[in-house]
């Protein structure tokens, strides 16, 4: 058990046990005649919080092996359902999708989304529906993605040139840092029109993703919020202050420019601002806080997810050089060595797509999706799921289930997707890299385009090898848990340029 948990446990147990007892007995009184899904015995007060550990997706998988694919935990005072099979995922995300389409309140959403005014954490209802429609139409639709194609191509060329220069001296490249910075530049240009050279908020956005994914005791035992035992509240406040300053400056700049643009929209922020000023359609009310919350969503969602996915793909390819070779052969056949990859090539790169899907199967970017919350009592297959239960879909465990993926489920084997219709759209409940149902990711098209494009260009332009003396078995594949699951250490490799054309 982690040391802070021991401190929490003993410090508050005596004082709060009586309160807990009253709460838990009234909770049980309401539920005793109804059958909750099975689960382990919990501790007073903490419930099962102590079982989550540093890598909750792995610990929840272990528990599901014992208690089954639908399991009840009590995290502090919150009833929590953990789903770990495709069948149960379908029941929650399709059959009863509407009941589970909300998000729980959390300290992170409070501090970093201006009180759930964003899309990712907003509760199910008309505000969520309207901003989801707005973001899809104005930023994530096919036509908007197409609009930014030349920007992506320009940024990618700069990225390739940087790596080519380094490759001339056979230097080791920090792939993680390079990919993150590429994604950062692409995202800023897409969301607010230019790159951020002044504020350097990348680490802050990464902190947002990490903090929002951490199981925060304050969310589960609200009486402990003031103690901020994990120090998360303090970190959230500091982070939100930095982001707020940055976002205010961006909005001010757009407001100043708007006077000269006479209603013309250059980017997403212009659209949001004109909606705010026309204040506001009856359907959707936006003020500065709403705009800032939505901006944080789009920046964090676009940067962190895609770079995490790209790094895992490259890591798996470094671990499996024969697969890297097959990807490069496909690129050679489709693109040839006399030009760079163009986005229009992507639909023809079917092996590459399988490699990316296979990576997302064993390293889903969001291992537990984003927590859902039920909005009413519901009984499913005889199990009672109380209103306001937190729902965790363990996409990581589902992607590694040998009952679904056969005994080689833990192996990296892209060929398993040959002759299957499985794709990333959320219709196949054994494979949920972008979730499914009402809350599924609205950025699938953009995310997949960027991941495929960056991986294709990188492997087309360069042979990548591990630093001298390191064998594929030495490459560490450790994870760092947050809302996303990035590698815990930066990925490094030695590139050699392989095209016949000069850049
Ligand atoms: C490889 C890239 C990406 C992956 C793997 C990914 C994955 C996911 C997952 C698993 C969810 C949660 C679904 C659920 O809770 O059931 C999600 C939600 C979301 N994603 Fe993505 N995503 C990616 C890229 C993007 C991009 C590029 C954007 C937009 C710029 C985006 C915006 C969002 C938003 C706004 C939500 C919340 C939707 C809602 O609550 O209604 N994502 N994503």
From TrEMBL:
PROSITE patterns: CYTOCHROME_P450 (PS00086). It is found in: Membrane. Pfam families: p450. CDD domains: CYP71-like. Its cofactor is heme. One of its GO terms (cellular component) is membrane. InterPro entries: Cyt_P450 (IPR001128), Cyt_P450_CS (IPR017972), Cyt_P450_E_grp-I (IPR002401), Cyt_P450_sf (IPR036396). This is Cytochrome P450. It comes from Aquilegia coerulea.
């Amino acid at each position: 058990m982690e040391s802070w948990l021991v401190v929490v446990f003993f410090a508050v147990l005596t004082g709060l046990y009586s309160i807990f007892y009253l709460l838990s007995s009234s909770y049980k009184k309401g539920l005793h005649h109804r059958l909750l899904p099975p689960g382990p015995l919990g501790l007073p007060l903490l419930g099962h919080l102590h079982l989550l550990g540093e890598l909750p997706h792995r610990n929840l998988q272990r528990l599901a092996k014992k208690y089954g694919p639908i399991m009840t935990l009590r995290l502090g005072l919150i009833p929590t359902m953990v789903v770990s099979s495709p069948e149960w995922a379908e029941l929650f995300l399709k059959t009863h999708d509407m009941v589970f389409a909300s998000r729980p309140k959390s300290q992170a959403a409070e501090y970093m989304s201006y009180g759930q005014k964003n899309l990712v954490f907003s509760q199910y209802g008309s505000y969520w529906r309207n901003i989801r429609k707005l973001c899809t139409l104005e930023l994530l639709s096919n036509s908007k993605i197409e609009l930014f194609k030349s920007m992506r191509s320009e940024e990618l060329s700069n990225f390739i040139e940087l790596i080519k220069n380094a490759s001339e001296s056979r230097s080791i490249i920090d792939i993680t840092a390079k990919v993150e910075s590429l994604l950062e530049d692409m995202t800023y240009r897409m969301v607010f029109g230019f790159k951020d050279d002044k504020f350097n908020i990348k680490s802050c956005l990464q902190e947002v993703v990490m903090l929002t994914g951490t199981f925060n005791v304050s969310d589960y035992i609200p009486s402990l919020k003031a103690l901020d035992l994990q120090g998360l509240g303090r970190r959230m406040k500091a982070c939100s202050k930095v982001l707020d300053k940055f976002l205010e400056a961006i909005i001010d700049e757009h407001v100043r420019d708007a006077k000269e643009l006479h209603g013309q929209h250059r980017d997403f922020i212009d659209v949001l601002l004109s909606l705010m000023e026309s204040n506001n359609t009856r359907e959707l009310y936006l003020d500065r806080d709403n705009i800032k919350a939505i901006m944080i969503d789009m920046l964090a969602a676009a940067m962190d997810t895609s770079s995490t996915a790209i790094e895992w793909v490259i890591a798996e390819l470094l671990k499996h050089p024969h697969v890297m070779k097959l990807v490069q052969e496909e690129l050679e056949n489709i693109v040839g060595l006399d030009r760079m990859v163009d986005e229009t090539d992507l639909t023809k790169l079917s092996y590459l797509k399988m490699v990316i899907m296979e990576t997302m199967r064993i390293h889903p970017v969001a291992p537990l999706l984003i927590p859902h919350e039920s909005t009413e009592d519901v009984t499913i297959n005889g199990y009672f799921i109380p209103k306001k239960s937190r729902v965790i879909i363990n996409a990581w465990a589902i992607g590694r289930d040998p009952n679904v993926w056969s005994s080689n489920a833990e192996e990296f084997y892209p060929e398993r997707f040959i002759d299957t219709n499985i794709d990333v759209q959320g219709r196949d409940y054994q494979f949920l890299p972008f979730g499914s149902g009402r809350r599924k990711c609205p950025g699938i098209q953009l995310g997949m385009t960027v991941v495929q494009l960056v991986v294709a260009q990188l492997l087309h332009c360069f042979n990548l090898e591990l630093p001298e003396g390191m064998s594929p078995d030495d490459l560490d594949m450790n994870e760092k848990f947050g809302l996303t699951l990035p590698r815990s250490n930066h990925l490094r490799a030695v590139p050699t340029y392989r095209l016949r054309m000069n850049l």
